[in-house]
Amino acid sequence: MKVNGKNYRAIWMEGEKVCMIDQNKLPFKFSIHYCNNIDETCIAIKTMITRGAGSIGAAGAYAMLQAIYSVDGLDIVHILEKAKKQIDSTRPTAVNLFYATNRVLEAAKISKEFAINEAFAIADECALHGKLIGQYGNTLIEDGYCVETHCNAGWLALVDYGSALAPIYAAKNSGKNIFVYVDETRPRSQGARLTAWELARENVPHAIIPDNAGAHYMASGKINFFIAGADRIAANGDTANKIGTLEKAIAAKYYGIPFYIAAPSSTIDIKTSSGKSIPIEERNSDEVLFYSGKLKNGKIEKMRIANPGSGALNPAFDITPASLITGIITEKGIIQPNVEAIKKLLDDEI
Ligand code: MRU
C-alpha cells in the first residue's frame, strides 16, 4: 500500500536486516524499525513493533532467515530447530507464526536454498492472499453498506492489502459508497490508531467508535455487515481474534447482522479441533492501566488512566464460536465455518 506516494509492505528484508513499519509509533509517526538479527526480530514481535497474524508470520520466517545467515556451518537444521523455539516463544495465539517457522524448518531439511526461498515466499503469499480475500469479500459488500470492524486486520497486519480491510478497500476501489465503523479496540487501540490511519490514507469514510458502542449501532440499524480478521481458526471454525470480537459476534447474531471472518488459509490450525484448545495470550496489565498519546504541544506521553493501586487483567484474544460466524472469507473463496468445509478448503488449490 502507498504511504506518502511510495509503495510499502508492513515488513520486508534488506540484506540481512528485517525492516518493518513501527506500528507502536503510528499514527503519530511513520518510521521504519530495523532488526539486525534474530534476537532483535523476536523483541520486535513480542513488543508488537510488528503485529497482526500475517505480519507476525512473515517476521517469523525472516527471523529464521537471519538464523540461517548467522552461521557458516552445514547443520542448519539444528540451528533452525533452536531458532524456531526462540521465535515461537514470542507470542502464543496467532498460528501464522508457527506455520511460518515450521515451513522454513521443513524446507531446510531439503536444502538451505529451499529454506531461503520458502522464507521469502511466505511474505509474498501473505500479500497475494490479502488481495484475493479482498476480491472475494467485495462480492458480499453492497453499495451503501455501513461496515463495522474490530482491531486492525489491514495491510499493517497482513504484510499487504489486509484480511478484514481488504474487502473494504476492494469495495471502495470498485466505486461503492461505504462507511466504516471502527471499533477503538482497547487496550492497545489498534482500531483507533492503526485501522483509522489506514482508512484515512485510502480515503475510506469512517468513524472511530468506543468499544462498548457496537451493540448500540447494531440495535439502531446502522450496521449492515461486520467483518473481523483472525489469529487462529480451529478445525471446527471457532476463531480466535482480538479481545472484544466475541461480544460483537453475539450482538451481531442477536440483531441478524452478517458476521464474517476474513483470513488466509495459513491462519487455519487443523490440528486444533476447537477454540477451547487455542492458547490465549495474557499481556502486561500496564496496557490497561496506562495510555499513551500525543499532547497538544506535540509531545508523546504515557500516563496512568486507572485508579492508583488497582491491578488489571489483560487477555489479548477471545474465541468466537463457529455458530456465531456467517462465513469465512479466504484466498480460495468463502466457506462455512465447519470442519468439512475447512478440510476441503485446505485441500483446494487457489
Ligand atoms: O495483538 P495483535 O494486534 O497482533 O492482534 C492481532 C490482530 O490485529 C487481530 O486480532 C486481527 O483482527 C487479526 S490479525 C490479521
Layout: helices, strands, pairs:
Layout: E1 2-3, E2 6-7, E3 11-14, E4 17-21, E5 32-35, H1 38-46, H2 53-69, H3 76-88, H4 95-108, H5 112-138, E6 146-149, H6 165-173, E7 179-183, H7 190-201, E8 206-209, H8 214-219, E9 225-228, E10 232-234, E11 239-242, H9 245-255, E12 259-262, E13 268-269, H10 286-289, E14 290-294, E15 300-304, E16 317-320, E17 327-330, E18 333-335, H11 339-347
Parallel strand pairs: 6-7, 6-9, 7-8, 9-12, 10-13, 12-17
Antiparallel strand pairs: 1-2, 3-4, 4-5, 10-11, 11-16, 14-15, 17-18
Helix pairs in contact: 1-2, 2-3, 2-4, 2-5, 3-4, 4-5, 5-6
Bound molecules: 5-S-methyl-1-O-phosphono-5-thio-D-ribulose (MRU).
Describe this structure as you would to a colleague:
The protein has helices at 38-46, 53-69, 76-88, 95-108, 112-138, 165-173, 190-201, 214-219, 245-255, 286-289, 339-347; strands spanning 2-3, 6-7, 11-14, 17-21, 32-35, 146-149, 179-183, 206-209, 225-228, 232-234, 239-242, 259-262, 268-269, 290-294, 300-304, 317-320, 327-330, 333-335. The protein has a 7-stranded mixed β-sheet with strand order 8-7-6-9-12-17-18, with helices on both faces. It has a 4-stranded mixed β-sheet with strand order 13-10-11-16, covered by helices on one side. The chain folds into 2 domains: 2-130, Four Helix Bundle (Hemerythrin (Met), subunit A) (Up-down Bundle), CATH 1.20.120; 136-349, Rossmann fold. The chain has 350 residues and is α/β, with parallel strands linked by helices. The protein has 11 helices and 18 strands. It starts with a strand and ends with a helix. The relative contact order is 0.12. Helix 3 runs antiparallel to helix 4. Bound molecules: 5-S-methyl-1-O-phosphono-5-thio-D-ribulose. 5-S-methyl-1-O-phosphono-5-thio-D-ribulose (MRU) binds at residues 51-54, 151-153, 157-158, 163, 190, 228-231, 241-242, 316. 5-S-methyl-1-O-phosphono-5-thio-D-ribulose is lined by residues 51-54, 151-153, 157-158, 163, 190, 228-231, 241-242, 316.
